[in-house]
Amino acid sequence: MELELLFNIKILTIKRKTMLRLFLLFLISITFSIPSPNKFNEYFIDVAEKGRPSIVSIISEKTERIQRMPNFFFFDPFEFEDPFRQEERKAQSLGSGVILDSDKGYIITNSHVIDEAEEIKVILQDKREFEAEIIGTDPLSDVAIIKIKADSLIAAKTGDSNKLKIGEWVIAIGSPFGLHLNNTVTAGIVSAVGRSDIVSKAKFENFIQHDAAINPGNSGGALFNLNGELIGINTAIATDGYSRSNAGVGFAIPINQAKRVIEDLVEGGIVLRGYLGVSINDVDENTAKVLGLKNKKGAFITSVVKNEPADNAGIKEKDVITAMNTIPIEDSTDLRNKVSNLRPGETVVFSIIRDELLLTVPVTLGTRPSEEELAKAYIKDRFDLLGLLVSENKDGDGVAILDVDPKSEIFKNNVRKGDIITEIGKVAILNIEDYNNELDKYSVDEPIMIRLVSNNTIRYIAFLIK
Question: How does the average pLDDT of the chain come out, rounded?
């Protein structure tokens, strides 16, 4: 019994010593893993010292035309010049940029910083000044590349913006308010990622939101992480509505997104983006209920452009795209950004919900047309041969006109939304099927006669289809 008791006491003593050693090791690891205030400061100091030489100030100059205001108090009746004539003046704007390639002199900035610029001057941290040439601009992503011929340039080290975490420290460097404040360093944290519809719904936005102080002049400047890596290009701020100064909310273009644009701009001066050929909306609560969806994630297809990649692959209206190459799609903006980041000719497998069934559809992407071409394609796809968008007439026979192409011949004949088509040629139109069948018999440059009911008045119009 005594031997057993001594043995147990010895075991207990060993356990206590082991626990004490482990506790001491834990305290030591904690002590060395938490940086001291001085060590924490050194992270910011190191990023500032390494990052500032890669930041430039950009002065862009362009000619503006302003309306001259006549001075009626000193009007000269013998002056033959137009008192309301426009006058020209030189206007300057200030922004920032980041050196990406020290050998080739490439500098990234925002497209809006050099928009319509006739002359661009770049000022380095060491006060040297250089004239810059534009390599390429992409207003849809607000990214531009300019080039200077200079020696001893220091380029920023780029990081991976996909690895950013909300709450992570970031450092902004730029030239707020003017050259007298160039290379200003501010710090903050990442407040959110994937922000869109901030500047314009028409642009490709996937912003990093942060609270490092940035102001007018910071546009095109750098956003660094604590490793000194460039992870974003500052592009926009939210203001208090009364001034242009910062209200604690800034937005930066992720460097990964910018890299994709830069590659195309450097290679050919334009950005080639993947194109699906659909119109899309977010899935709202009512749409989700009607389609039997479990949640509101995904992109709802509202229309498919004929003979474009989606149409050729069999994607249809009212389909909901929920994933792309197994990567979930959050909403319509997410799909738009993901498709545009791919290159023409790439094959993508989309996960689609149709009639409550999950389908997989492979699509070979096309080349995204220009904004002007997209607008024309939308109009062409929206309207039929006559320039009309029609639907069943809920109040009786015929088809109801929902919209009219303002450039069409039928519009010139005073046909408007709300009118009812009851006859084409000598054939009665009872429904949408009759309308489509009869319209298929016509083509461009053929004459056509239509019977309309407009404001309870029957009238006939005849015109040449163009």
Answer: 84
